[in-house]
From TrEMBL:
InterPro entries: Alpha/beta_knot_MTases, MRM3-like_sub_bind, Ribosomal_eL30-like_sf, rRNA_Methyltransferase, SpoU_MeTrfase, SpoU_subst-bd, tRNA_m1G_MTases_N. Residues 34-109 form the RNA 2-O ribose methyltransferase substrate binding domain. One of its GO terms (biological process) is methylation. This is RNA methyltransferase. Keywords: Methyltransferase, Transferase. GO terms for molecular function: methyltransferase activity. Belongs to the class IV-like SAM-binding methyltransferase superfamily. RNA methyltransferase TrmH family.
Length: 268
């Protein structure tokens, strides 16, 4: 179909390079990452992301991959028909769906992006370590219509395969940047954005904060919250009221509650 080249051996040099992208150092050195699964690869193609190749294993006559094949063909993306063993060798999952995209990382300029934005709502993540949490938080930011997400360079790698899967395609719906927060937060403030941090000991709750102004909501790491250096740069700090007996909330859940409060205030 469409003259796809076939690759059957895991010893193929291209396969070796693609499999290496499961490691952060090779993602960094090549500027590429893996996106896998039918829905996610469909999102990659639809987004217009720069794709090096799409690898497909399985029955191409079943119709399961038609949207991917037609989309890739329309955008002149190179496709390979590969053996199941090749997919399994490259995949980061236990039960691969038979399709993988090799994608070039997007390297936009966050300083240029924030210029001139009117009353933006940003999610800022400081030293998040759990890939599932990071992906979920990007999905929530997408769901509430946030302007962008900024992820600290001390967080889990944005292009970790588990993060990519956990975003469920939201990575391709809104801008997501990796930044040095100590350098970047003052740039947000200079652009008229209020930087509000989250801390359990804060005096003000999320329900008493005005999210209708340009806001960057900072969520700290799962174990330690915001770093001291980041906390020192915030304009205000807020917390979630917890009248029950729970000691704490998962970072992804806490960010969801706060983002939806921001959405409520902006839509009433």
């Amino acid at each position: 179909m469409y003259g796809m080249e076939q690759i059957t051996s895991v010893k193929n040099n291209r396969v070796k390079e693609w499999a290496s992208l499961k490691q952060k150092k090779y993602r960094n050195s090549t500027g590429k990452y893996i996106a896998e699964g039918v829905r996610l690869v469909e999102e990659v193609i639809a987004s217009g992301a720069s794709v090096e190749a799409i690898l497909i294993a399985g029955d191409l006559q079943s119709g399961r991959f038609d949207k991917i094949v037609n989309g890739a063909h329309s955008k002149d993306i190179v496709m390979y028909e590969v053996a199941e063993a090749v997919i399994e060798h490259i995949s980061d999952t236990k039960s691969p769906q038979g399709v993988i995209a090799i994608v070039h990382r997007h390297e936009g300029d966050p300083a240029l992006f924030i210029a001139g934005k009117e009353k933006p709502l940003y999610l800022v993540l400081d030293s998040l370590q759990d890939p599932g949490n990071l992906g979920t938080m990007i999905r929530t930011a997408d769901a509430v219509g946030a302007t962008a997400v900024f992820v600290s360079k001390t967080s889990v790698d944005l292009y970790n395969p588990k993060v990519i899967r956990s975003t469920m395609g939201s990575l391709y719906h809104l801008p997501v940047f990796e930044v040095d927060l100590i350098e970047f937060l003052p740039q947000l403030q200079a652009a008229g954005v209020k930087v509000v941090g989250t801390a359990p000991e804060a005096d003000r709750t999320v329900y008493g904060y005005d999210f209708t102004q340009g806001t960057a909501l900072v969520i700290g790491s799962e174990a330690h919250g915001m770093s001291a250096d980041v906390a020192a740069l915030t304009d205000a700090q807020i917390t979630l009221p917890m009248p029950g007996q729970a000691e704490s909330l998962n970072a992804a859940i806490a960010s969801s509650v706060m983002l939806y409060e921001a959405l409520r205030q902006r839509t009433v």
